[in-house]
Amino acid sequence: MSQVHHAKLAQAVTLNPKPRLYAVARKTADKLEAKRMAAPVDPATGQPLFQPVTGRAPAQPRNHAGAPVGEYLYCMRCAAHRQLRFASVQELSRSSEG
Questions:
Q1: What sign for the dihedral angle of Cα 65, 66, 67, 72?
Q2: Is residue 58 part of a domain?
Q3: What is the pLDDT of residues 10-54, one digit of tens each?
Q4: Number of domains in the chain
Q5: What is the pLDDT of residue 28?
Q6: What does the CA dihedral 10, 16, 21, 24 come to, rounded to 10 degrees?
Q7: Within its chain, how far is the Cα of 66 from the centroid?
Q8: Predicted TM-score (pTM) above 0.85
Q9: How far apart are CA 78 and CA 72, in angstroms?
Q10: Residue 55 lies inside a defined structural domain of this protein
Q11: Does 39 lie in the same domain as 2?
């Protein structure tokens, strides 16, 4: 391309950038609106339907081994019983000493 054509193109872009920006903004807004219209939304709350609002995630990760829930809960119960037995043995040893 010639230098004259480059100069005219640069001048056209610098003098009138807004229509292109508006077109991009309009296209983005149209896409967002299409997404909103595609998903069913509860009119009262604005929440997507069939997506319940739940509480926060746990503060500490649990079940590192990825065990089934029943096995994990059973192990937790066994660990709690061990702690109780240990505490009762400690208490008995303290009461027999003193």
A1: positive
A2: no
A3: 565 555 557 788 888 889 999 988 877 777 888 888 888 888 888
A4: 2
A5: 92
A6: -80
A7: 21
A8: no
A9: 10
A10: no
A11: yes
